[in-house]
Specification:
The complex is a heterotetramer of chains A (368), B (501), C (298) and D (351). With 368 residues, chain A is of the alpha/beta class. Helices cover 47% and strands 19% of the residues of chain A. The longest helix of chain A is centred in the first third of the chain and has 21 residues. Chain A starts with a helix and ends with a helix. The chains are: A alpha/beta (368), B alpha/beta (501), C mainly alpha (298), D mainly alpha (351). Chains in contact: A-C, A-D, B-C, B-D, C-D. The interface between A and C is large, with 46 and 44 residues.
Chain lengths: 368, 501, 298, 351
């Protein structure tokens, strides 16, 4: 598969450049450090499980024989997760990585039992104030900040006339499920869009599934039919259906987590051309960074880091279609918003803390 | 023409069905094969018709050794079989059933017009009239049998096997069938005829072969053998029981039926203003060609469905709206016509089949008492002389006659006040049939009211106190069973040619 | 609110895989084999279509491969139930497990990715513009311009009805499905009829899968059938043994789904909307069963 | 009889070994330690108390669901609602544990009872529709599973969701309501004893009580049951209610035994496993226990191989599917010649 090989090769090149820039840490110890990533699901989600695995590859690429890496898929049966964490903790792994909120409770149970292990928890937290979790490093993403930029882009493309008026005036949001982490994207997205057009309308749909691309396409088509000019998908493999819908309806889409334009650039250039941009959630970068800190002995264990635009952990793809599609004033506006968020002059609400009632009010207020 | 030589059949589970069977069948004759249930008749015919392969031995036709390994191969040899349990498909039409697997085609499709014409042609050739477009499930049993015979004849058949063909027929239908068979023989067909009924064998066959426990026990031209000899060869020693007509023990009817009407979807089940009275100690016989309303009558009397009009009373009190459970609690017992469909379950054990319904009498607290249940069943097995591996064997392991005994034991053992027996001895051997008939009479003598439905007129005439003839859902005759009453007297009523007041 | 002009194509799109798979279930059911493995067969078809169309750069070869993949899995099911005489339901469940694992493995082996085939330049099956009809206002856009498999699915309904009712094979299938012992005694080759029906079922499943990966979207993704095979099983049961009934049931299911999808964003909680497509068929069945019961009572 | 049963078991085990040899060995040859792969799969699950514990944890819900399916199938019904009942039972139990103001020792039993009643509705509704209108319970239960899922998620989202948690999960289950653990170093909880007891009682019910007997009559031959005057519709409904209660109870046990919060976002799949278990057990409640343990072993062994070697868990999944087919393959397990080779007397002799 020539396309893929090329892409992977590029990834390797990037990783290689990173190594050259940072410099391989001097032969650290004779024993390789062992890191394992326990996936509470299956790979192939094109979202942070895959990005996490990519991060593991980058770690391997960077440290070579100085590390031993492994990715274990635990599947979707939740009762097996704790057992797997326990197994890994009993083994000779030095660093154990888990992600999503669901793993938090498991970390709570496991980490205190194995104080000599280091745990990295992505997108979840443990109650550090209890003082039992000196070996856990937790990191959460401010995806609302990245989504804020996505909202500006979507609303901006309509407002400045880049998008023809006859496409419609509303923007779309396609979520996998009506759950907090998805709504964190939604809240930031709406706020960003409102900062451009205060009375912007947002068509919101939840698919109830993360692997049903056909359903995702159908939902997106319904939105496009209803006058949505550009939609934002946060629904894993279901969400990719939105890209197919954008191609069919001749509208625009926004990707999530990874660069969705790049996913289809080789296999379906026409569809890729409909991806205005993607909001990135750089799990790979974060994981690599955490491991760097771990090797350097400066990983801030025992606390939560919440990282966002400031740490470059989330962001918007600004190359590709975005570079040509967005006009300069819009780009400037996005850059300004980014700066504002980084310096704290703009704060974006979080979907984690809003109550269901407030969320409903918010959703009702933007309904087309 | 057909020669069986040293044919044996042992099933994988070790059961020996046939051993060293050898005899010949002459071309152009009707050859009867007699034997008790489980004697091996059906297995032998299954081997001939390609449904099973022999374990040893050989068959030759016209001197050519043959070994049909499928019904198709048998058909190619000119062998057709009419099964006792028809191999017909209810939702297909008569034409589709007859020509299944050998349909005339037009391109990729069935040529319906040609198929229909072929069936009509076939029917005309053998004088067996059928409606080619009727859906099979809507036909009476006799009509279905015609279809089954036509199907067997449809493939250039030279050898026709009939397995108990008269079990489901009324006397006029039987007579008609016999006329057809004789005509078929005259047209050159060889017919193998399996039957329990000596009278029929006598009337039809030129040669008889008797089987006993998987072996040939006799083989003789009909002219050279007496009925008694055949009976002895078939079952060792057993005579036919004498005529019994139990007397009613009270003038008061136990069961009264007035103006009973049922408008069922199936025309064969419909009832039209039926009046009946059955007294304690009396056996009321119901005669009629199949599909004259017998099934509907049984359904209504057993509470399986409610009548559209009319009333049923027990001891003078109406039981309107009572379902089967309620009637059974009042003392209803019912030996159904289809022993495996309604009478029991092949998968359950003999004990479970024998005590189902009465099982609540074997309780200790919330639990059943399995040991007591098994003991009771052992008693039944002994008393009814049931041949079986043991009380925990599944009912499906038993031959038809033995299974019928278990089911009869259950129904008769409930000390019933009203007993409905529907074809109690159909398809079972003479010894078992006599035993069951004796039990029915004994129950009547003990004061039970009995309703007997049977296609076997001999049985009706031997057991019944009175006989009621049904035709098209109506009572056309109600006759005391005196010596003048004969099948010939009943025939016209059954065919609806005559109506008595 | 809901524009009907947009809804009709949506209904057809949502219903197409259900009609195709439903017909597949229908054919095998008529021959007495409940094809629980339809979901797995669809998945295999979806993957095979993508892979072969990418390799050959010919969408039609991809479709053929999808049909064959469905049939190959059907053959495997037949080996399990006929040759090994394993339990029918369990074999179906096992086939679905195996297909999910197998397609993921195959995808990984081919692309290095477990989730999606986006690195394969696979093709899609064409939309068909019906000449003449296309030019009619309103009706044109409704009836014309659908995926070739949508038309194939609709066209297959009478063909299947004819197959089942008018051909020797169909007659044999019905006989075997209703009473295998009687059919065998008549000389109908029961095994061959069931295997043939199952293979046809597999072909339909493969087509349904191909519609998902080469019609709906242009890629294969893990477990992309998302339970449509089970819905197709339901459609067949709701069709009461008729090809037309199966189609009607599939359209009912598809219509409910399409309408609830369009209703999203009107303030009804999404979970409740998602429940509706599963409640409507139950309701429809109850109404039908009640009417039938009442009719039979008379 | 016992001799034949032993031969059957031995033959089944032999089939398992042969399939493992045929599939796993070639896979293992790609690894540095092929012997390790095979022994890990076969014996790894028994090497530590924790992994034995894992088998039992997995088998516990399978026993409840398998028992529920077995009781329903025995009554001649085909209800797939066990999956939804298990899900809703778990949700209902958690909801009750969160809402009921009961003192410690009463909380778990009360919550389980409430969960069982709520969850059983997924089986009961199709049962009622079947009994009253003759609507196919296969289809309605299949559909209602998904309806129950989404309605359950709605309830979770609106009433039970912990806003402090960053995902759609319920509030934490009160410590009082959680089931006590039995063996140190494992998560085996009291639920397994309840599951074993339920299977035992299920066998007792089916084979030693009047109700169970009537249920088997109706399942074996409905016309026969009608002939006896039994109310087939009511018997079927009774089985659906019983099966629904057991499955939903199992869902509650699973929640209170292994989870801290309700966090299922999709149907957990235990009901489907229950169908598999029931078929493996030939619908016999007592055999549900070994069948569930067998599946648990298959899972844990497969997980261990996937985790410790470079073999994708999908490959293991393929082998598990093959095992499921072959251990129910009558052509193998009922083959008289093979059975005799494993010491069975000819079945004919048993007569």
């Amino acid at each position: 598969m020539p396309h893929l090989t090329r892409r992977r090769f590029n990834t390797l090149l990037v990783a290689g450049a990173a190594i050259a820039a940072v410099g391989v840490p001097a032969a650290h110890a004779s024993e390789p450090k062992k890191i394992v990533f326990l996936v509470n699901g299956n790979l192939g989600d094109k979202s942070y499980f895959d990005l996490g695995a990519l991060g593991m590859n980058q770690i391997k690429a960077k440290y070579g024989d100085a590390v031993e890496t492994k990715v274990i898929e635990m599947g979707t049966d939740q009762t097996k997760w704790l057992a797997t964490f326990q197994d890994a903790s009993e083994g000779d792994w030095d660093v154990i990585v888990g992600c999503t909120f669901e793993i938090s409770d498991i970390m709570v149970e496991i980490a205190p039992q194995y104080p000599d292990k280091t745990y990295i928890l992505i997108d979840g937290v443990v109650p550090f104030d209890e003082g039992k979790f000196g070996n856990v490093y937790s990191v959460t993403f401010k995806q609302n900040e990245g989504s804020y930029l996505a909202g500006i882009l979507a609303a901006g493309l309509i407002a400045d006339g880049t998008i023809p008026a006859d496409w419609g005036k509303s923007i779309g949001f396609l979520g996998g499920m009506d759950i907090p982490v998805i709504n964190d994207f939604l809240v930031g997205y709406i706020e960003g869009a409102r900062s451009v057009t205060p009375d912007i309308k947002v068509a919101i749909a939840y698919a109830g599934s993360f692997n049903d691309a056909a359903k995702g396409k159908e939902l997106a088509l319904a939105q496009y039919r209803g006058g949505t000019a550009i939609g934002f998908n946060v629904a894993g493999l279901t969400g990719l259906g939105q890209l197919a819908a954008a191609k069919e309806a001749g509208r625009l889409a926004l990707g999530v987590n990874s660069d969705q334009e790049a996913i289809f650039k080789d296999s379906d250039p026409e569809m890729a051309s409909k991806v205005a941009s993607s909001m990135l959630k750089k799990v790979d970068v974060t994981l690599l960074r955490a491991f760097d800190l771990y090797i350097a002995g400066t990983l801030p264990v025992g606390q939560t880091e919440s990282i966002g635009l400031k740490e470059d952990a989330v962001g918007l793809v600004e190359t590709g279609n975005m570079a040509t599609l967005a006009k300069d004033p819009l780009k400037a506006r996005i850059a300004a918003a980014k700066a504002g968020i980084v310096d704290g002059s703009i704060t974006v609400s979080s979907g984690f803390v809003v109550s269901q009632a407030d969320l409903n009010t918010l959703r009702d207020s933007v309904r087309p | 023409m057909i020669r069986f030589e040293h044919v044996s059949k042992t099933y994988p589970n070790g059961t020996v069905a046939l051993s060293d069977v050898g005899f010949s069948v002459a071309a152009g004759t009707i050859h009867a094969i007699c034997g008790e249930n489980g004697a091996g008749k059906s297995t032998l015919m299954k081997i001939l018709s390609g449904l099973e392969l022999p374990s040893a031995g050989s068959i030759s036709i016209n001197g050519e050794p043959v070994r049909p390994d499928s019904p198709r191969a048998a058909a190619a040899l000119g062998i057709g079989m009419v099964h006792q349990h028809f191999s017909l498909i209810g939702s297909l039409t008569v034409t589709e059933n007859i020509l299944l697997g050998q349909e005339p085609r037009r391109g990729p499709f069935v040529d319906r017009a040609k198929a229909r014409a072929r069936v009509l042609d076939l029917a005309a050739r053998y004088s067996l009239d059928v409606d080619p477009d009727a859906k099979l499930a809507t036909l009476s049993v006799a009509a279905q049998q015609k279809v089954e015979i036509l199907k067997a004849l449809s493939r250039d058949t030279r050898i026709l096997i009939l397995d108990e063909p008269t079990a489901v027929l009324s006397p006029p239908e039987t007579e008609e069938l016999f006329r057809r068979l004789v005509a078929l023989r005259e047209s050159g067909l060889t017919i193998l005829f399996i039957s329990h009924k000596l009278k029929e064998v006598r009337a039809l066959a030129q040669q008889v072969t008797t089987l006993r426990a998987g072996r040939v026990s006799g083989d003789a031209p009909m002219s050279a053998i007496s009925d008694d000899e055949i009976a002895r060869l078939v079952m060792g020693e057993a005579g036919t029981s004498a005529i019994v007509r139990p007397e009613p023990q009270s003038a008061e009817a136990r069961i009264t039926v007035r103006g009973l009407t049922l408008r069922a979807r199936d025309a064969n089940d419909r009832l039209d203003a039926i009046d009946l009275a059955i007294r304690p100690g009396e056996i009321l016989g119901i005669a009629g060609v199949d599909g004259s309303g017998q099934r509907g009558l049984v359904k209504v009397l057993t509470g399986a469905c409610q009548p559209d009009a009319g009333m049923i009373a027990w001891d003078g009190k109406s039981v309107a709206g009572a379902n089967t459970g309620a009637l059974r609690r009042r003392g209803l017992a019912h030996l159904p016509a289809d022993r495996f469909r309604d009478g029991g379950s092949r998968r359950l054990t003999l004990t479970e089949n024998a005590l189902a319904g009465a099982h609540r009498n074997y309780r200790f607290g919330p639990l059943l008492k399995p040991r007591a249940m098994i003991e009771t069943t052992r008693g039944i097995i002994d008393r009814f002389a049931v041949r079986c591996p043991g009380p925990l064997a599944p009912l499906g392991a038993l031959s038809g006659g033995n299974a019928q005994k278990i089911i009869a034991a259950r129904e008769f053992g409930s000390n019933p006040r009203f007993l409905i027996v529907d074809q109690p001895t159909r398809g079972i051997d003479v010894a078992a049939a006599n035993f069951i008939q004796d039990q029915i009479v004994a129950l009547a003598r003990s004061g039970c009211a009995v309703l007997l439905l049977s296609a076997d007129l001999d049985e009706l005439l031997r057991l019944s106190t009175r006989i009621v003839v049904l035709y098209a859902g109506r009572i056309v005759a109600s006759l005391p069973n005196d010596p003048e009453l004969t099948p010939a007297r009943l025939g016209p009523f059954m065919l609806g040619l005559e109506v008595a007041a | 609110m809901i524009d009907l002009l947009g809804l009709v194509p949506a209904i057809l799109r949502v219903s197409t895989p259900l009609i195709l798979a439903g017909l597949g279930v229908h054919v095998s059911s008529r021959a007495g084999v409940l094809n629980i493995g339809i979901e797995g067969m669809m998945l295999a078809g979806a993957l095979a279509g993508v892979v072969i169309s990418a390799l050959t750069q010919n969408a039609w070869l991809g479709l053929v491969a999808a049909l064959l993949a469905g049939a190959v899995l059907a053959a495997l099911l037949s080996v399990a139930i006929h040759l090994l005489r394993a339990d029918l339901v369990l074999s179906g469940i096992a086939l679905n497990m195996a297909a999910l694992a197998g397609t993921t493995l195959a995808l990984f082996a081919l692309t290095g990715d477990k989730g999606i085939s986006s690195s394969l330049p696979s093709l899609t099956l064409p939309m068909v513009r019906l000449p003449l009809i296309d030019d009619i206002p309103i009706l044109g856009p409704l009836l014309s311009g659908h995926n070739v498999l949508t038309y194939a699915g609709l066209l297959a309904v009478p063909l299947v009805a004819i197959l089942v009712n008018r051909t020797p094979l169909g007659l044999a299938m019905r006989a075997v499905g209703e009473n295998p012992e009687a059919a065998a005694a008549t000389g109908v080759p029961v095994l061959r009829v069931q295997v043939t029906a199952l293979l046809i079922s597999g072909l339909f499943a493969g087509a349904a899968g191909a519609f998902l990966s080469m019609g709906y979207v242009s890629w294969f993704s893990q477990n992309m059938t998302a339970g449509r095979g089970f819905i197709a099983l339901a459609a067949d049961v709701m069709g009461f043994g008729y090809a037309w009934g199966t189609m009607a049931a599939a359209l009912l299911l598809g219509t409910t789904e399409a309408i609830t999808l369009s209703l999203q964003g009107f303030g009804v909680p999404s979970e409740l909307l998602q429940a509706i497509p599963y409640l409507v068929p139950v309701l429809a069945m109850v109404i039908h069963a009640r009417r039938r019961k009442r009719r039979e009572a008379h | 009889m016992i001799r034949n049963a032993l031969a059957e078991t031995a033959l089944t085990l032999a089939i398992v070994f042969v399939v493992v040899a045929l599939v796993l060995v070639p896979l293992a040859m790609t690894q540095a330690d092929p012997v390790g792969v095979v022994t890990t799969f076969l014996f790894g699950p028994f090497k530590s108390i924790r992994h034995i514990g894992n088998i039992i944890e997995l088998a516990t819900p399978s026993m409840f669901c398998g028992l529920a399916v077995a009781l329903i199938l025995r009554a001649g019904m085909f209800n797939l609602g066990v999956e939804g009942a298990f899900f809703l039972g778990g949700l209902g139990t958690v909801a009750a544990a969160l809402i009921l103001p009961l003192p410690g020792p009463w909380l778990a039993p009360a919550a389980l009872l409430a969960g069982a009643v709520i969850g059983s509705s997924v089986c009961v509704v199709p049962g009622v529709l079947r009994a009253r209108y003759g609507a196919s319970e296969l289809v309605s239960s299949l559909m209602l599973n998904f309806a129950a899922l989404f309605i359950g998620l709605y309830v979770l989202n609106v009433w039970l969701r912990d806003p402090a948690a960053g995902a759609m999960v319920s509030f934490k289950i009160p410590a009082d309501a959680r089931l006590p653990r039995l063996i140190e170093g494992t998560r085996i909880h009291i639920g397994v004893l309840l599951a074993l007891a339920a299977c035992g009682l299920g066998a007792l019910y089916l084979f030693r009580t009047a109700g169970g007997f009537e249920s088997r009559i109706a399942g074996a031959n409905p016309s026969f049951a009608a002939h006896l005057g039994l109310d087939v519709a009511r018997i079927g409904l009774r089985a659906q209610i019983l099966g629904g209660l057991i499955a939903a109870f199992g869902g509650g046990i699973e929640m209170l035994g292994l989870y801290q919060r309700f966090s299922w976002q999709a149907l957990p799949g235990n009901g489907w496993t229950g169908v598999t278990v029931a078929i493996l057990a030939r619908d016999h409640p007592a055999l549900v226990i070994p069948a569930a343990l067998f599946l648990g072993w298959l899972q844990v062994g497969g997980d261990l191989v996937a985790r410790n070697f470079d073999i994708p868990n999908e490959a293991v999944g393929l082998m598990q599917a093959l095992l499921l087919v072959t251990v129910t393959a009558a052509a193998l397990t009922r083959n008289p010649r093979l059975l005799r080779a494993f010491g069975a007397r000819s079945p004919g002799a048993a007569r």
